[in-house]
């Protein structure tokens, strides 16, 4: 009887720690690209696949300006917003795994939060290693992509327009991350000029990204 009561108390404590309203699946955080209206933007297509294929999941979109000009204030506001969002959610739902998706400026924001910012013209930040365990990151067209990073997917061979001077912080998330960049993208491959490449990632890579994310998520659940 005493053992049963102790077990009940333990289960109640665990439920309380997880918090009410926490999903049984994944919590998706989506950071849209420059000039996209508030919401998930074109990454909403991938988000929909994940919500359908990981039962019990939910999604929220990062609220930030998403301006192209001036870019730096918009991007740094996004870094602050995402840091606060992820910290708050991890405290509220410590057992829920997060999937963070970012396109273009949203990808840049995500990686500055995860790796720490170290690009010219942007305020330095420290890597947020507390977000790493069990979480998955999917990026497309990241302007801060730095050549040599192990999580690059795609045909690009160069760095983005805002490469990192200290990409070492990204090592913490390398196994949980894919960053898709194809040759010709003017943002994740500096010196290129084909905007159509930048805008085609969801069409070209969407199914791959969804499948990879689902596999990574389920492996983290084991």
TrEMBL record:
SUPFAM superfamilies: alpha/beta-Hydrolases
Keywords: Disulfide bond, Hydrolase, Signal
Stretch forming the signal peptide: 1-17
UniProt entry tagged with the keyword Disulfide bond: yes
InterPro entries per UniProt: AB_hydrolase_fold, Cutinase/axe
Pfam families attached to this UniProt entry: Cutinase
GO MF terms, alphabetically ordered: carboxylic ester hydrolase activity
This protein's name: Acetylxylan esterase 2
Organism: Fusarium albosuccineum
